[in-house]
């Protein structure tokens, strides 16, 4: 008998089947300078669309207030954070895949929800720099594409005369892409997701490691960076 294709049955099998893990096939490292790097893996996460829909629906999003001098600023995006083992489904599995690849015990997950192009994150280095000389920060993008900027600050800015416009780099991150910052990126570079009129909704899920480990980490000084951290 000839097999008959039944779309509903096919859909069910696809939904109930094992979720395919991330793929490193397209991984590409850009050296920002001799001490900082960014990895981009286009199409890292299969099933990114379905995960986006689930997170939009299930995460208890909130909009934080930030004190800036004597003003309270409402952050232009929604956020939520967890310990890795309490984070929503897929995050623990993805944290384990990242830990294997980067040799870091990622234990913190946070998510940002950019509802539209009016939501953004301003230029900053992540707070993990206060406890780590060379933190690895991994960001999974879900939903609509957005521009992601990196610009040098501190020593990197003053030595980088070759790239024009202050050495700022721009890339576009799409749903399913992975972007990983490492080396001195949080100390000597800043990053941003600027406002982008017309952009659709996007979520970023970030993985960080909170334990500074055996390295004496409470320092911003470059000479304290262990060689292994600058891979
Ligand atoms: O949404 C992004 O890709 C960046 C998020 C970010 O920089 C942060 O959460 O610190
Ligand atoms: Fe950040």
UniProtKB/TrEMBL annotation:
It comes from the Bacteria. The keyword Oxidoreductase applies. Residues 105-211 form the Fe2OG dioxygenase domain. GO terms for molecular function: dioxygenase activity. It holds the Pfam family 2OG-FeII_Oxy_2. Keywords: Dioxygenase, Oxidoreductase. The keyword Amino-acid biosynthesis does not apply. PANTHER family: ALPHA-KETOGLUTARATE-DEPENDENT DIOXYGENASE ALKB HOMOLOG 3. This is Alpha-ketoglutarate-dependent dioxygenase AlkB. The lineage of its organism: Bacteria, Bacillati, Actinomycetota, Actinomycetes, Pseudonocardiales.
